[in-house]
């Protein structure tokens, strides 16, 4: 076995262990700490780990900053709650004053997982939906063109960059 193959094998093993640990933690949370179903959980964790390695091989994953990921998740939850309140308020109005539009957002993150996370997170924010990703531009449908999409997208891009250890 060549040194390159040994490194690749070691990287895949480390990635598989991290992913299996993550999936086991998810199972434990979903099962509310009940350990009675662990034989089934082991099969599920093994299957999820194998599928994740097949769909996203270890060598294609950029390094992820645990601190950046935790800060991103905390920020995303706060933004989602605030946005949910905003959408509920708009839904309760008799005649919402919306101005829907399609807006192009330039992408500054590198292609691959950082851009995918950015696009998915932006589409989950209230009032926005990523419509088309073409080159270095994301076409976004917004419920109201007056919302500060450019500022929100820039803040989100900074948060996503921090997840992957990039300082901006």
Structure, briefly:
The chain is built from five helices and three strands. By secondary structure, the protein is mostly helical.
Mind explaining what this structure looks like?
The protein has 168 residues and is mainly α. Helix 1 (3-30) crosses helix 2 (38-55), helix 3 runs antiparallel to helix 5 and helix 4 packs across helix 5 (149-163). It has helices spanning 3-30, 38-55, 66-92, 113-124, 149-163; strands at residues 101-106, 128-134, 137-142. It is 60% helix and 11% strand. A three-stranded antiparallel sheet has the order 1-3-2, covered by helices on one side. The radius of gyration is 20 Å and the shape is globular. It has five helices and three strands, in the order αααβαββα. Mean pLDDT is 84; it is low at 1-7. Strand 2 (128-134) and strand 3 form a beta hairpin.
> How many strands in all?
3
| Portion in strands | 5-15%
Query: By helix and strand content, what is the structural category?
Result: mainly alpha
For the biggest β-sheet, the strand order reads 1-3-2
Mean pLDDT: 84
Output the radius of gyration. Answer: 20 Å
N/C terminus separation: 40 Å
Our count of helices gives 5
Q: Percentage of helical residues?
A: 55-70%
Largest sheet: 3 strands, antiparallel
């Amino acid at each position: 076995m060549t040194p390159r193959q040994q490194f690749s094998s070691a990287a895949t093993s480390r990635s598989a262990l991290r992913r299996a640990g993550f999936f086991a933690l998810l199972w434990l949370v979903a099962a509310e700490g009940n350990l009675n179903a662990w034989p089934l959980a082991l099969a599920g964790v093994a299957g999820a780990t194998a599928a994740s390695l097949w769909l996203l091989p270890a060598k294609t994953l950029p390094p992820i900053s645990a601190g950046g990921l935790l800060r991103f998740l905390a920020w995303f939850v706060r933004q989602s709650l605030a946005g949910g309140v905003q959408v509920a308020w708009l839904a309760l109005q008799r005649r919402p004053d919306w101005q829907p539009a399609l807006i192009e957002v330039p992408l500054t993150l590198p292609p691959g997982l950082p851009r995918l996370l950015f696009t998915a997170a932006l589409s989950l924010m209230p009032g926005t939906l990523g419509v088309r990703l073409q080159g270095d531009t994301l076409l976004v449908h917004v419920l109201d063109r007056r919302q500060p999409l450019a500022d929100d997208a820039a803040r989100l891009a900074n948060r996503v960059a921090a997840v992957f250890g990039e300082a901006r």
